[in-house]
Design a protein that fits this description.
2 strands, mainly alpha, 7 helices
Length: 191
């Protein structure tokens, strides 16, 4: 996503940008289905070292990246915030929650307070940072007082959804960006 501002302003640019996640998507599927084997890839991207794990979280991640590239592109804060919440917020929630998350949430023993707090804080700051970055390139212009409030609401909504005990049914790499997209669409509009 951070490379989007350097693409041309042509309508095709978004599809060209989506090509890289598409190639990664194909790679994850072929290795996840064991058509090819790469232990280094599997160990670096999965939690338990099983190739089929590539067909869940990592695959959903690149599909969401492709979707945001094509649908929202660099013209909308909705895609930027959604990807920042997924990569920055959920990414740091996982890392810090696993490392320091001894105190679990009362309604979801799989999630911790530190993970949820990290989700909110890092998702918020990654989103604000990326919005500022895109604004500096002139991709869109924001009323920053309202944008900060809106991003705080998106961060809160994504944090609440990420904390729910639904990971058996829906992966965080789907629920977090979808919640972010819906909330940001309602708050930012079609900007």
């Amino acid at each position: 996503m951070s490379s989007w501002p350097i693409f041309s302003s042509s309508i095709e640019a978004r599809y060209f940008a989506a090509f890289v996640p598409l190639v990664n998507c194909i790679r994850l599927v072929t290795y996840g289905l064991r058509i090819f084997s790469d232990e280094g890839l599997i160990k670096s991207v999965t939690r338990e070292g099983k190739p089929e794990e590539l067909l869940r979280g990592p695959l959903y991640y690149v599909v969401v990246l492709m979707f945001c590239s094509v649908v929202f592109w660099r013209d909308s804060p909705v895609g930027v915030v959604s990807l920042a919440m997924m990569s920055g917020g959920d990414g740091f929630a996982d890392i810090l929650g696993r490392r320091y998350g001894a105190t679990k949430l009362p309604y979801n023993r799989q999630k911790s307070w530190i993970g949820s707090i990290s989700m909110f804080i890092f998702g918020f700051f990654f989103s604000i940072g990326m919005l500022y970055y895109f604004s500096a390139f002139g991709c869109f212009h924001l009323d920053w007082d309202k944008a900060v409030e809106r991003v705080a609401v998106v961060s809160l909504a994504a944090t609440v959804v990420e904390s729910l005990p639904v990971t058996e049914f829906v992966d965080d790499n789907i629920s977090v960006p979808l919640t972010s997209m819906l909330t940001a669409s309602l708050l930012f509009g079609s900007h």
